[in-house]
Specification:
Elements (H helix, E strand, L loop, with lengths): L14 E11 L24 H4 L10 H13 L3 E2 L2 E2 L1 E5 L9 E5 L5 E2 L2 E6 L2 E14 L3 E5 L4 E5 L6 E7 L6 H17 L12 E10 L9 E6 L2 H20 L7 E6 L4 E7 L9 E2 L6 E2 L2 H10 L4 H12 L3 H7 L3 H11 L5 H19 L10 H12 L5 H12 L8 H12 L7 H14 L1 H8 L3 H14 L6 H12 L1
Parallel strand pairs: 13-14
Antiparallel strand pairs: 1-11, 1-12, 2-6, 3-17, 4-5, 4-16, 6-8, 7-8, 8-11, 9-10, 12-13, 14-15
Helix pairs in contact: 3-4, 6-7, 7-9, 8-9, 8-10, 10-11, 10-12, 11-12, 13-15, 14-15, 15-16
Length: 492
Amino acid sequence: MQAGRPTGPLVQGYEVIIGFETHTQLTTKSKIFSRASTAFGAEPNTQASAVDFALPGALPVMNKGAVQRAIEFGLAVNAHIAESSVFARKNYFYPDLPKGYQISQFEIPVVQGGSVEFFLGEEKKSVRLVRAHLEEDAGKSLHEDFIGMSGIDLNRAGTPLLEIVTEPDMRSSAEAVAYAKELHKIVTWIGICDGNMQEGSFRCDANVSVRKPGAELGTRREIKNLNSFKFMQQAIDYEVRWQIEQLEDGHAIQQATVLFDPDTGETRAMRTKEDAADYRYFPDPDLPPLVIGRDWVEKTRAEMTELPRVMAARFVATYGLPEYDAGQLTQSKAVASYFEAVVAASREYKLASNWISGELSRRFNLIGEPFGDSLVTPLQLAALVNRIGDGTISNNAGRQVFEGLALGEQLSGDAQKQVDAIIEAKGLKQMSDTGELEKIIDDVLAANAKNVEEVKAGNTKAMNALVGQAMKATKGKANPAQVNELLKKKLG
């Protein structure tokens, strides 16, 4: 791996260097080299064939669906799809690996290069990819402590994986988590992985090292099998602190594979980290080179769903949204579809974006429901932002209307009639009588002579106080922008 670009905050005078290896389980119904099922949750060893058990004479046969999904990922990240790639045997000995080797790709992977772009806050970031290669998963060791025995379940053995490897471009745990979330979004958006981290469908390994700015890359330790974004950030933060403490105490970092214990919040060494030479890679004699014609790649490109980055660019171009807003709206297909349904019935694009990313998302997070199961329909939200946009109600009053819609109040007639009925029932209309508003502002100015003098002396906080008094006098029904304008006019 290359050193990457030295960006990001220093931690106690050290630069943090992070690279990722992510195992994404592909959504094929059968395994990568056999016809056995990949369904999750079956009884142990009921979904393993002769190939998975590594019985003598059983030969692997490539699953075309796995290759198709690898091509789709390569196109999604603007990578090169190799016309010819090679499978290799990765040799190591572990109870859940019946062959004594894993079929993977080494020197010539199917997907080469590419990048993943995402936002860290409102800052745009990009992480370069080294490769994405196809391989088979291993089985699983089951430890039954209460009877003092261990067993092997080979249901998972042979499940197709696409291992996605980055350059060490990330400089903080927050950046690493933002990258992992974006990668998760991409693979689930295009449908090559279900993204279920609890079931092991999306497993991340973080390679973490630290160095003084400008120095050579430090020795890395690999944190294995991070299966939640929360634990990912905790594990990296702990590992960074531990490595810095070791170096400050004069100890050398030993390359190792470590596990994160969420109960203690600490990482612990599992084994000395191997290098590629330790695995004695060599081409698998049972599998010929994987040849992918350009026509297959171009057919896949033509049939792929609109990618989130492409959709985000369209939202910027079509609706005039900031890049950050467009990125938030394309976090999932459900959110993007909801937004498009709203703007089909309203021209208040920015308002719609703000409400979907704000109040609507907050409500879904609060009740823990999927975004698509909305209590407020796109047409209702469109009607609501229309009334905010035309000045009928304020943004604050809009929250009361939103709550009324969510609770099922006044739901007769079409969406616009429903919104208007709630506005009327709650008395939320903004004041439209300029003469009445001017009289209220005159009274506010007369009652707050000190603030008036401070405004004239250039105190902007005093102006905010006058606006607040005017809004209070109108019980929140005045248009704040109109109040501001009238105050400025009267104060010269």
